[in-house]
């Protein structure tokens, strides 16, 4: 697949955006860890941190979705290599092509349904129990992640199609 910053200018741009998005997801995850440390220390000191569970729940969800486009673009998704190592190159390339196609289709379906979920969450004014944070706000970066995942899957789909066309039997 290649590193996110290699290839055509468009792929470099998209790869840079996806990499930056994943780094932001990592920073968010570090913030969640800091919140949990503060909650534990505060609990020991008798000063509990209100809403730590809610912030952890939303933060981890957003961070996980932020990593998906990077994993797709770099080929870092979980795979069962034990089953494919002995396959011919053309068969492996065909499986990789089907995987990219599945990632693209699933990202579009998730984007569609999560958009509907965000609209519903906003319409019903659903908030977290303790901090009263509007839940729909967490959907915004998740929807961005899913759009980036669809874009990454398009790039990997094209790369795997070329690879399948060049693979030897």
Structure description:
The chain is mostly helical and 169 residues long. The protein has one domain. α1 crosses α5 and α2 runs parallel beside α5. The radius of gyration is 20 Å and the shape is elongated. It starts with 8 loop residues before the first helix and ends with a helix.
What does this entry show, briefly?
By secondary structure, the protein is mostly helical.
Anisotropy-based shape = elongated
Could you give the count of β-strands? 0
Structure classification: mainly alpha
Strand content: under 5%
Low-pLDDT ranges: none
Gyration radius from CA atoms, angstroms: 20 Å
Order of helices and strands: HHHHH
Task: Provide the number of structural domains.
Answer: 1
Give the biggest sheet.
none
Distance between the termini: 20 Å
Provide the helix percentage: over 70%
Tell me the layout of helices and strands.
Blueprint: H1 9-44, H2 52-74, H3 81-84, H4 89-123, H5 136-166
Highlighted features:
mainly alpha; elongated; 169 residues
């Amino acid at each position: 697949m290649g590193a996110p910053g290699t290839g055509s200018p468009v792929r470099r741009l998209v790869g840079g955006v996806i990499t930056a998005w994943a780094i932001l997801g990592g920073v968010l995850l570090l913030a969640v860890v800091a919140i949990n440390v503060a909650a534990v220390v505060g609990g020991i000191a008798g000063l509990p941190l209100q809403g730590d569970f809610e912030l952890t729940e939303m933060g981890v969800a957003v961070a996980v979705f932020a990593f998906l486009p990077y994993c797709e673009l770099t080929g870092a998704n979980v795979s069962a290599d034990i089953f494919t190592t002995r396959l011919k190159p053309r068969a492996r390339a065909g499986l990789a092509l089907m995987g990219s196609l599945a990632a693209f289709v699933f990202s579009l379906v998730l984007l569609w349904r999560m958009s509907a979920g965000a609209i519903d969450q906003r319409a019903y004014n659903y908030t977290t129990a303790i901090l009263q944070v509007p839940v729909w706000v967490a959907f915004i970066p998740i929807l961005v992640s899913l759009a980036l995942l669809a874009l990454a899957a398009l790039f990997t789909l094209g790369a795997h199609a070329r690879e399948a066309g060049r693979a030897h039997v």
